[in-house]
Amino acid sequence: MRLFEVLLIVLNLFLLAPLAFGRLRSKRSAALSVAVSLTAISLHLALEGYRFQMWPAYVISAVLTLHTVVRFRRGSSSGQSPVKRSRLRRTGIAAFLLLYSLLAVLPPFALPVPSFDKPTGPYSVGTVQYHWIDHERKETYKNVPGNNRALNIQIWYPADHTEGYPAAPYAADLPVIAEALGRQYGIPKQLFSYFNLAKTYAYQDPPVSKREAAYPVVVFSHGFPGGRYTSTFQTVELASHGYIVVAVEHTLSSFTTVFPRGHYIGLSPNQPKPSDISAWDDIIDKVWVKDIRFVLDRLEDLNRRDDKKLLTGALNLSRIGMLGHSFGGANAAQALLLDQRVKAAINMDGTFFGKGDLSGGLPRPFLLMSSDLPPQPAGATAEPTDSQLAAAGLTREIFEKQLRQIPLRKQEALRNGGKELIIPHATHLSFCDFYLWFPMMVWANGQTEDPYRTHRTINKATLAFFEEHLRQR
Question: What is the pLDDT of residue 18?
């Protein structure tokens, strides 16, 4: 919860005191409490912004202010006259206090504005968005404008002078994204409407820092589904340490992609079954890796000439790394295998999908970050029954093949000097922003981790890896 939200709720409790204890305040204290409450709500709305979770506090604040004024006019001005109360009425007041606590405190506490750690690097952070069309590839899904593969790209970069530049929103086009998520997943759009109140510590389109002639590049690939913004905790941190971070939003595999004229498209309805490994391999091989190779081509064009006059000459394209979460982590490994421009890669807790041959290991530095899975209880078995397999569309033969294949791919990926780092207390969703969106997810999953501490561990490991392999420090 934010400063003025807390202050408003505490002041409401102060206004409730006469109800609870049966004493009127003096004229001065009553007027002061009302004035401070109104000032707090005004500052909250002006500086922090409205969000729907605070509606109970807004309403209660208005009711209590009105009640204080009316009661003050009817009561004694000395402030010393006790008001006798029956036990029933005192019980009612106690119930009201409990209701206030539930209505005013629980919603903003359970659904806070996402909050990010301040970046630890020496640079300020700028960000800019691009929309790139691959005229060499046709899109298979009919609802994409123009029929060519089109990608939204967001780039974070080191900056020095951000004064006078607007703070960057967490997610551009958030109202459209929230509307689309509501339609596709049945999630109330209000659950996302306040995300742009988050302070990301990035600014929109300031000049690139000139402290270095050019900066190493890290390309980011999100999970399935995800978005270019869903690991902001990591992209902003890397940029603050002098990296240009290029986040690719994989159209039809993201929550929602909003095109420049407001047209949007969500997750493709034609998704493979979770058990169809070959089909997921095809998505990596035929779509996602090609997205990355196209983006690398466009970065060369951007470095020669940026029409937005920001990044021309700023990218050190001899030092490109790749970073991905979940399905994007698999994409990072395959990009490292298949494109020599990628000099190092990190897979964050991703299964090794893709058809590239991993039998000889990966050819350049590779790090697998893994979640901290609890040990399996004694006597427990993960072996499904034949009926469970049939329900998943699998035969026993296919299941046994997959059971061998997935661990083997991991072993092969680490064969040529690759490293694995288990992040203490981390779960699969610890490698993105989701636990900052809905902290209750941590408790609902029976976890005790502190998402901020886990993010710091992930960021420290990520930075150390790229410092060693892209900057040779």
Answer: 61
Angle at 436 between CA 435 and CA 438, to 5 degrees: 65
What is the pTM for the complete model shown?
0.81
Residue predicted with more confidence, 131 or 21: 131
The pair phi, psi for residue 183, each rounded to 5°, is -70, -40
Average pLDDT score over residue span 306-315: 97
Q: What is the largest CA-CA distance in the chain?
A: 87
Phi, psi (deg, nearest 5) at residue 325: -110, 135
pLDDT confidence of residue 112 = 81
Q: Which two structure tokens, joined as six digits, stand for 426?
A: 């981390």
- How do residues 109-127 score in pLDDT, each as one tens digit? 777 888 999 999 999 999 9
The matching CATH number, chosen from 3.30.2000.10, 3.40.50.1820, 3.40.50.970, 3.30.230.10, for 124-374+383-469 is 3.40.50.1820
Nearest to 292 by CA among 355, 222, 209: 222
Pick the closest to residue 279 from 345, 333, 219, 224 (CA basis): 224
Residue 145 to residue 447: CA distance in whole angstroms: 42
Give 306-374 as a 3 state SS string: CCCCCCCCCEEEEEEEEEEECHHHHHHHHHHHHCCCEEEEEEECCCCCCCCCCCCCCCCCEEEEECCCC
Q: What is the DSSP letter of 167?
A: B
Domain edges within the chain? 3-110, 124-374+383-469
- Please state, in angstroms and rounded to a whole number, the distance separating the CA atoms of residues 114 and 192: 10
How many CA atoms, within 13 angstroms, populate the side-chain half-sphere of residue 258? Answer: 18
Angle, helix 55-74 to helix 3-21, in steps of 10 degrees = 40
Strand partners, 150: 133
Q: How confident is the model at residue 76 (pLDDT cuts 50, 70, 90)?
A: very low
